[in-house]
Amino acid sequence: MCRWLAYSGTPIRLEELLYKPRYSLIDQSMHSRQGVETTNGDGFGVGWYPVDGPAEPALFRGVGPAWSDANLREIARSTVSPLFLAHIRASTGTAVQQTNCHPFRHENWLWLHNGSIREFAKLKRDLVLAVDPRLYASLAGSTDSEVMFHLALTFGLRDRPVAAVERMAGLVEAVGRAHNVDNPLQMTVATTDGDRVWAFRYSSEGHSRSLYYSTETTALQRLYPDNARLQQLSEESRLVVSEPLADLEGAWQPVPESSYGVIQKGADELGRFEPAAP
């Protein structure tokens, strides 16, 4: 399917995570170790916020493989951000086109997804009709992921993010049952308003795609005092990834099945994710 990462913390160059680690996101686009597909070459995208505070994020997306895009490399080595999302895509059936590449953006929000809505073509009409008419015009592509984003916005993502995503998941499952589609939803999702990051791991069958979060920075700095990159990060720095970027013992914690997490100033949160039936 896809691979992604979400970073929040000390401003860093995008290349520090996209290119430099041993198992960087660019490496995973060619040699994913935990994905359904080894190769994720059906487009890519990165969305980032400016250093001087939350605002509408910048977005760069392409339809080719991430590993060969010279413009992505230029942007990654010259752009510094305290919060960014990045995604490499393996299509589950929809077209390879720029409007289908993640992250998706609406005002100050970004959204990306790994997984699928099973038999999406059969469920699509009912799901799209549930999108708020005021948001419908901003549906630009043809993916299930973008529809999921607009449903979450419809259900109050801007005010109650966890509840909105739970309502979105509940609707997908209800529509799936109505059309006799077993286990319709598979997802790991990251979304952000430029201040906090929410991450979700859930699937209807209870066997979700891989997802990890980084151990607290201060603990990692004690474990690896000679690692210059770690020593430069603040205690608020945190990373969520589809699969680890490096083999550092103790650096990665698996996100539990059917869970959500919130990266924010102060204490982060980890809670139970429970779809809400419509």
Automatic annotation (TrEMBL):
GO terms for molecular function: hydrolase activity; transferase activity. It is an enzyme of class 3 (hydrolase). It comes from the Bacteria. Pfam families: GATase_4 (PF13230). Its EC number is 3.5.1.118. InterPro entries: EgtC-like, Gamma-glu_amide_hydrolase, GATase_2_dom, Ntn_hydrolases_N. Coiled coil: none annotated. Gene3D superfamilies: Glutamine Phosphoribosylpyrophosphate, subunit 1, domain 1. SUPFAM superfamilies: N-terminal nucleophile aminohydrolases (Ntn hydrolases) (SSF56235). Keywords: Glutamine amidotransferase, Hydrolase, Transferase. Residues 2-244 form the Glutamine amidotransferase type-2 domain. This is Glutamine amidotransferase.
